[in-house]
Amino acid sequence: MQLIKSKNLSVSLAAAACALLNVGAQAEEAPADEWKFDTAILYYGETDRVQLAEGVFNANKDFGDQRIFNGKIAIDTLTGASASGAVAQQEAQTFTRPSGNGQYVVNPEETPLDDTFQDTRVQLSAQWTQPLWENMTGSTGVHLSKEYDYLSLGVNGSLARDFNQKNTTVSAGVSYQYDSIDPVGEAPVGLTSMVVDTGQFADETLFDAAFDATRTTDSKDKNTVDLLLGVTQVINRRMLMQFNYSYSVADGYLTDPYKLLSVVNSEGITQDILHENRPDKRTKQSFYWQTKYASDYGIADVSYRYATDDWDIDSHTFDSRFRVQLTDNSYLQPHFRYYQQSAADFYQPFLVEGTLLPSVASADYRLGEMTAYTIGLKYGQMLDNGKEWAVRLEYYQQSPKNAGFDEPGALQGLDLYPSIDAVIAQVSYSF
Amino acid sequence: MFSKPTINRLLVASVLVATLALNGCANLGVKPWQRDLLAKDEMALDAEGIDLGLDDHIYFSKEATSGGRSFAGGGCGCN
Q1: Looking at the DSSP assignment, which residues form a beta bridge with residue A332?
Q2: d(CA B11, CA A46)
Q3: Most buried among A40, A165, A223, A306, using CB within 10 Å?
C-alpha cells in the first residue's frame, strides 16, 4: 500500500508505535452476582509415548463494581514413555531405572525411552482483580501445583492503567515462583555415569552403594521471577492489539534428573551413559504480539512470539485462529500454530569419548533444534442461558533436527532425531 | 558507560518516541458507543482461556520456550 498523505503516514506510524507499546486484555463482562463455570477434559496422546488426561474446573464470579474472583482446579494424569536422551544403538541397551530398583531394556535401533514415567498432578490457583482507583485496576493471585516428585508455589501481582477512553491500557506485572523437586531415587550428580548392574556386583548391597555414590541430597529448588509489561490498544471498531515484553530469571536446579546422555566412541558405539547437567541459571526474554480482528465472516486471532535466552535458545511462534460463525449460535474454528527453536549452547545429542567433558551438557531433544506445527479444528455451540459446549481436535507434530553434529560410525544408520506425533482432543462445557 | 551527549540524544529520542506514541494512541481507538464488536466475549484477548491454559501446559512440557502471552511459570516437573 502506498501512503500518499503524510497524515496517513503519521497515523500508521502511531498505530505501529502503539502496537509496540501495547497492553491489556479486556475483561469479559459477566453479569454481577453470578458464578460462571468453565470445565474441560483434555486428552493428549503421543504415538508410543506420553499419554495425558487432564480435567479443568474454572470458576469466575463478579462481585460487582468489576471486583472479580477466579479460581481454578486442574488435575492431570500422565503415563507412558519419554525419550531419555540416550542415543539408539544397533545392539539392545540396558538402563537402570531412576529409582535404582530394576532395569529396562531398549531394543536395537530404537530410541531409548524411559517407560517409568507416571504421575498425577493437582493444580490450584486463585486470582482477585479489582479497580483500585479511577482507570487503574489491580490483580493478585496465588497458585499451587503438586505432583509426586514436584511442588510449585507461586504468587503474582499486576497493575493496569487505562488511557484514552479505555482505548489504551498499559500494564505491568510481576510473579514469583518457588519450585522444589524430590526425584525418585534422589537426584543424580550431574555427568556421573549411570550405574548398571551387568553382573559385576557380587551382591545387591554393593550395587546400592555404587548407585548411592552417584546421588546427591543437595537442594533441588529453583526460584523464578517474571516481569511482564504490556500495552493493549484498540485500533478501530473491529481491531485490537496487544504487545507484551517479558523478562524471566530462573535460578537453582534446572536439570532434569531423569535425562541421560550417551558417550560414544569413534565407531558410534555407546561406551558410557551419563546423567545430564544443566546450568543453574537461565534468563529469558520474550516479545509477544497479538491482534484480534472482527470481520463480517468471523474473528481472526493472530499472534507471534519471539523468545531468546542466555542458553542461546531463540524461538519463533506463530499462532492463528479464525472463528467462523456458522449460525447465530454455533461456530467452527480452524487453528494453525508453527513453532521453531534453535538448540541450547550446551545441547549435545551425545558425547564423543576422548573429547573434553563439558561442565554442562544435555541431550534432551526439547533443548535441541526443532520445528513443530499444530493444526486443529474446534466446533462450539451456544445453548440457552449462556451455556456453551465445544469440542476440539488437533494434531501436533514435532520434528527435531540435527543442529550440525557429525555422527560417527554406526550412528549414521540410526534415526537420532525421530519426529513425534500427538493428538489433542478436548471437550468443554461452560455454564 | 555512556557519554553525556549520547545520554542526551537518547533522552531526546525517548521523549520523541513517547510523544509520538501517546499522541498516536490518542488518535486510535473508538468512542464508547462504538464498542459493539469489541465488547463481544469472543473478542477478548484471552477468550478461550481454558484452551489457552491447557495448550500452555502441553507446549511448556514439550518445547524450550514458554510464556509471552502471560507469565511463563509452568508449575510442573515436566520440563
Answers
A1: A324, A379
A2: 53
A3: A40
- Express each pLDDT in A366-420 by its tens digit: 999 999 999 999 999 999 888 999 999 999 999 999 999 999 999 999 999 999 9
Show the domain range for A105: 6-430
Q: Do A27 and B44 touch (CB under 8 A)?
A: yes
- Kindly state the cell numbers that stand for A37: 463455570
Task: Say how many domains are in chain A.
Answer: 1
Model confidence over A216-253: pLDDT tens digits? 988 899 999 999 999 999 999 999 999 999 999 999 99
SS (H, E, C) A54-85: EEEEEEEEECCCCCEEEEEEEEEEEEEEEECC
Q: Is residue A57 part of a domain?
A: yes
A186 belongs to a structural domain? yes
Q: Report yes or no: A255 at the B interface, CB cutoff 8 Å.
A: no
Domain that holds residue B17: 1-29
Question: Nearest residue of B to residue A287 by CA position?
Answer: B68
Could you say which of A25, A286, A341 has the minimum Cβ distance to residue B68?
A286
8 Å CB contact of B29 and A248:
no
Q: Residue A1 falls within a domain, yes or no?
A: no
Q: What is the CATH number of the domain that holds A344?
A: 2.40.160
Contact B21 A17 (CB under 8 A): yes
Q: Does B26 touch chain A (CB under 8 A)?
A: yes
> Residue B77's closest chain A neighbor by CA?
A150
> Has residue B9 been placed in a domain?
yes
Does residue A94 sit within a domain? yes
Note the ipTM here.
0.90
Look at residue B10 and tell me if it is in a domain.
Answer: yes
Name which of A153, A167, A287 to mutate to probe chain B: the one with the most chain B Cβ atoms within 10 A of its Cβ. A167
Interface of B with A in 34-53 (CB under 8 A): 34-47, 49-51, 53
Number of compact structural domains in chain B: 1
